[in-house]
Amino acid sequence: MTTEEQEVEQVKQCFLSRVNPLFGNIKGWLTEKKELHVEQQNIEIHEKLTGFYMVPTLVITHQTEQLAELKPVGAYIMASEGRVDCLGWLDTEYIIYLVNGGPYLHGKQMFKDVGDDGWYWVENNLKDKAHPINKETFFKLFAQASDYGL
Amino acid sequence: MDSNPLSQIMEAYKIYIECFKVAKRAVKQQQSNLFAELNLLTQPNAQQHIVKTKIEIDDLFVFSLWATFERFVITYLQNKGAGLQQTVTPFALATPLYKHFQKEVEFWNQKEILDLLKTIPSIDKNSIGQAKQILDYRNWIAHGKDVNKQSSVNSMTPTYTYRILDEIVKVLLLT
């Protein structure tokens, strides 16, 4: 394995090691919503540098209706170190991993209020807001993606 | 050259997002009267069809934002190059030289144009680097999304594309 291949493998493993605790938290938060069913599955994704690899996904259903799927998009995402999409039946919300305050433009943070390294929900609008992922923000983004009030 | 052309595309994107939500709700609520000529409601997995369509249209918005940005930058360079007509000697060469420049700039390599813009002190170098990644993604769309020649970035949203290109356009409007 060349040095470059080793670096790519490290980036991929780092991304996966961040996705797993995120999904663990989400499954934990959703246990209090007895009406919802959460199932972890595995799918294959492809990135130019990594090639194909397996990632976990979370499928959230209510009775027989799929409300949303949380799907890792990849480690090589602009201005972040990875992205997980919440693909709701109504809309898609984006969760990205930000480090060092996130991206900067003209010396200013592109997204306000980014502090510690971690997963952030970036709203798909021009309000420049990134919310650290916790139970409250996750329920909010889930509601926006799925139109399902939690 | 005195207004930002990207904002109208972003406005259209915002409206499209809301229209899509209305269509999805109409499908979910089986409001057949709203789909007079379209048999979307009778198709299995109608919602999934809409989701796939949204992914395609999002890419087209990225493409459109880039095309508009490209036209803006070329016009900017043509306007800047107009000064050649006053400064070049011998004077007989000035106008033909400018005309040649004006024609040829249309075909300049887009990455090289971005490198040229990087020399403007007030342009953020990071935004040029990110614009190159958007260009890479735009090229991947333009060449049929070949899975064997994937873009260096896996995905690009219209909102993020707008943020980056808008930063560059705003600086050019001031210089």
Which secondary structure elements does this structure contain, and how are they paired or packed?
The complex is a heterodimer of chains A (about 150) and B (about 180).
Chain A: H1 3-30, E1 36-47, E2 51-62, E3 65-74, E4 83-88, E5 92-98, E6 104-105, E7 108-109, E8 118-122, E9 130-132, H2 135-146
Antiparallel strand pairs in A: 1-2, 2-3, 3-4, 4-5, 5-8, 6-7, 8-9
Chain B: H1 6-28, H2 46-81, H3 84-87, H4 91-104, H5 110-118, H6 125-142, H7 158-174
Helix pairs in contact in B: 1-2, 1-7, 2-6, 2-7, 5-6, 6-7
Mean pLDDT of chain A: 92
Spatial extent as radius of gyration of chain B: 21 Å
What is the helix tally of chain B?
7
Quaternary: heterodimer
Number of domains of chain B: 1
The span between the termini of chain A is: 47 Å
* Backbone structural class of chain A: alpha+beta
Number of strands of chain B: 0
Instruction: Kindly name the structural category of chain B.
Output: mainly alpha
Q: What is the chain-wise order of helices and strands of chain B?
A: HHHHHHH
Q: In summary, what is this structure?
A:
The complex is a heterodimer of chains A (150) and B (175). Chain A has helices at residues 3-30, 135-146, and strands spanning 36-47, 51-62, 65-74, 83-88, 92-98, 104-105, 108-109, 118-122, 130-132.
Structure description:
The complex is a heterodimer of chains A (150) and B (175). Chain A is α+β, with helices and mostly antiparallel strands. Chain A has one domain: 2-Layer Sandwich (Metal Transport, Frataxin, Chain A), CATH 3.30.920. Chain A is built from 2 helices and 9 strands, in the order H-E-E-E-E-E-E-E-E-E-H. Chain A has helices at 3-30, 135-146, and strands at 36-47, 51-62, 65-74, 83-88, 92-98, 104-105, 108-109, 118-122, 130-132. In chain A, the strands form 2 sheets. In chain A, strands 1-2-3-4-5-8-9 form a 7-stranded antiparallel sheet, with helices on one face. A two-stranded antiparallel sheet of chain A has the order 6-7. In chain A, strand 8 and strand 9 (130-132) form a beta hairpin. Chain A is globular, with a radius of gyration of 16 Å. With 175 residues, chain B is mainly alpha-helical. Chain B has one domain (6-174). Chain B has helices at 6-28, 46-81, 84-87, 91-104, 110-118, 125-142, 158-174. In chain B, helix 2 (46-81) crosses helix 6 and helix 2 (46-81) packs parallel to helix 7. Chain B starts with 5 loop residues before the first helix and ends with a helix. Classes of the chains: A alpha+beta (150), B mainly alpha (175). Chains A and B meet through strand 6 of A and helix 1, helix 2, helix 6 and helix 7 of B.
